[in-house]
Predict the 3D structure of the following.
Amino acid sequence: MLNMESTTESTKCTNSVFKTLVTACAVLALSACGGSGGDGGVDPLAANDGGVDPSAANDGDANSLIDVSDSTQCNAPTQKQWAYEAMQDYYVYYDQVPVIDPQVFESTDDVVRSVRFEERDKFSNASDATESALQIAQGREFGLGYRWGYDNDGVPRLARIFTDSPFGRAGLERGDIILSVDGFGWTDNELSDGFGDRVAGTPDNPSTASWSFEKRDSGQVITIDITATEYQINTVVERTVFTNAALNQRVGYLAFDRFLRPSEAELDSAFAYFQEQDLTEFILDLRYNGGGLVDVAARLATLIAGSAREGQMIYQYLYNDKYANNNYSLEFKGGFEDLGLSRVVILTTDRTASSSEIVISGLQPYTEVVTIGTRTLGKSQISSPNDRCGERLNILEAEGFNSAGISVRDGIPATCFAEDDLTRNFGISDEGVFEGFVGTAIDYIDNAVCNTEPVTIAARSSADQAARLVPESSRQDGNEIEGAFTR
């Protein structure tokens, strides 16, 4: 039984979009996120099926009189025209963008979602610029600080709690059962109406709601009034070492949630700890990690592989033919020791995406990578922020390939199948019982075989995978940013 011990410069487009694209030296700011799929509320076919005369759209119509270069024009028509011009310009699949009238759509986000190339892109979107920057740069967000999902018995349980969040400060834990909110049962239809306003509100007018839970271990039922607030995101969820004296094993375990700017210090601290532990194996838990900054992904890959590979390619990014001069390589960094290991075991689900896939796929040509869980989402592209009038375009602008020329477009299959065990905390319990994912990884380390056969499944869209962990998106706390970003 194992026991637990305690791009050099930016270039601007010359057209009216004035979109700044990073070149090779700006890679330290890039991010890769799973993005936000889902239904933008507009039927793309209705917008593209003969409803617009291409000649009228480009020859003296009202849209041609809109000047998006005038930053003082923050009205809705200008914002929608700005988004459409961007999709025709630096979008990696710009040649697949249909001719439409952006003014028939309700919002900037609707424009982007309705013209994106769905065969390859379920991620491009528009979002609130302030909220996006707060998460990526400062590692802060407003909300309650939880994720939830149904366990195998259909019981709604908390899946992830951020330590500094209202849920974290209330002492709630992964595996606690959600019973009710303001007297409404968690499965009551009445709870879905206005759920975000009821439990979170806004930063200027936060809401307070009465939540009831059944504690995971004791079965005690508790009721707590919880108010939404801004909190710091801890991206290192868990770090520890499992030991097995009989097999002379010391297994490091790191659960990592997002690639944000503050994650650098968190990762450096975690790996400084692991450097002192004389590890024989290492488990990296990326099951919920939807991505973030690509230079932080390069940092994590280097912390695992070591600076001996400094300057070697992790990933190559290719822009569209208008911006081919911006193509660049993401490389291993210098100044980091490796863990002295010949392989890494990585835990994955269909929420594992983008920058997480950069780490997995980027390491595969250089070291043995064993994946435990299910196929990853499959997001091979990156974006960088394009802000105007408080809105941010998160448009795919380049596609990535590892040093062997392989894309993660179809997701990364699991070596061994495992299921997320929401009834247990990450890692190992005080009684020495492993959570399901980790237990499967330990079995593989001990026996070099899977205790269940790997399952090959099609990569789900971001909308599908979000629905799997959070079956009703209206009850998901916060506005988590996922994907791969340059800065």
